[in-house]
Amino acid sequence: MGAARDEDSPPGGAGRPERLREVVAVFLKLGLIGFGGPAAHTAMMREELVRRRGWVSDRRFADLMAATNLIPGPNSTELAIHLGHDRAGRRGLVMAGVCFILPAALIVTALAWAYVRFGQTPAVEGVLYGIVPAVIAIIVNALIGLARTVVTNLWLGALAVAALAAYLFGVNELLVLAAGAVVAALAHLSRDLARHRQALLAGPLLAMAGQPVFPDPAAGQLTQLFLTLLKIGSVLYGSGYVLLAFLRGDFVARLGWLTEQQLVDAVSIGQVTPGPVFTTATFVGYVVAGPVGALLATVAIFLPSFVFVGLLTRITDRLRATPWTSALLDGVSAVALALMAGVSWQLARTAIIDPLTLGIALVTLLLLWRTRLNNAWYIAAGALTGLAHTLLT
Known about the structure:
Order of helices and strands: HHHHHHHHHHHHHHH
Helix content: over 70%
Radius of gyration: 21 Å
Structural class: mainly alpha
Shape: globular
Distance between the termini: 66 Å
Oligomer: single chain
C-alpha cells in the first residue's frame, strides 16, 4: 500500500496533513503580500521557504527557479506550485498554486467590480509608494543569497554579467535565457565532446515565434473567453508586457471585446495588486462577462501552469543526474538570477524617488540582514509609511 502512494508523497517524506496545512498557510500569506511582480515573489519565497523554514536548500530552490523558466506561463506561480509539490506531493502542488493565486484573483475581481460600476478603480498609489521600496530590499537580499549558490565559478559570473547587460540593453528575456542555456551546454560539450544537441531549447523559441489565434468557436462567448485565455496561458513566455501583447491581439484587435484604455487599465490592476501579474486575465474576464467571466478567465490562464509543472516534477530530480544537463541548469540559473537583478534595477529606478523611499529600502535591507522577521512585517510597515506620507502631503 505504501508503494502505491509514493507519487502522491512529497520527495523525502510522507504526505502528512500538517505539511499540506503548512503549504496552504504559507502560500495564502505570500499571495496576500506578494507585491512587486515575479522577481519579488521569487525573493519572498526564498526568504520564507529557504531562509526561515528550511523546506528546500538554496541549490534546490535555484534549480526549480531555472527549470520553471523553461516552460510557458507565469514563472513565480509555477515556482510556487513546484515548491508545494516538494513539500506535500500532488495535493501540495494544487494547493500551493490555488492559494497563491486566490487572494490576487479576489482582489482583482473586487477592483473590476468597482471599475465597471464607477468607471475607475480605487487609488492605491499611496500604499505602493511605501511597499515597493521594501520589496526591492527583499529582492536584493535574495539575490545576494542566491548568488552565493548559483555563481560558483568565474565563467558563470561572466555569463550572469553578460545576461544582465543584454537585458538592460533591451534584448528579449526569453532570448537571453535561451542563449545562456545554449552557452552553458556548449561550454560543457566542448570540454567533454558529448554528442547531445540542444533540441530541447527549440520548443520555447518556436512557441514564441508566432502568436497563434484561436478560431472563433461556434459556442458562446464564455467558451470563447475560456479557450482564448487557455491558449495564451499555454504558449506565453516572458513578462506581463508580453501578456499585454497577447491580450491586445486577441481581445482588442481580433474580438473587439475591450478598448485600448480598458486593456491598459486591466494590466495596471494586475501590476499594482499582490500575487501573480497574470490575474490581469481575471480583470479582463470580469469586464467581458461579469463574475462568471472572471472565474473562467482565471482558471483558463493558470490551468496550463499546473499541467506543465505536474509534468516538470517528473524530470527536475534528474536534471542534475548527468553532467550536461547539470551544466545547462547552471547556465539557466545564472541567467535567471541576472534577469531578476535587471527587473529589480528597473523597479528601483521608478520606486526609489526621494529620501523617504530610499530610507525604507535601506532600513528594510538592514533588518533582513540582522533579523529573521517575516516579510509580512516589512510589507505592512511600508504600506503604513506610504499611507502616512499620502495623508500628510
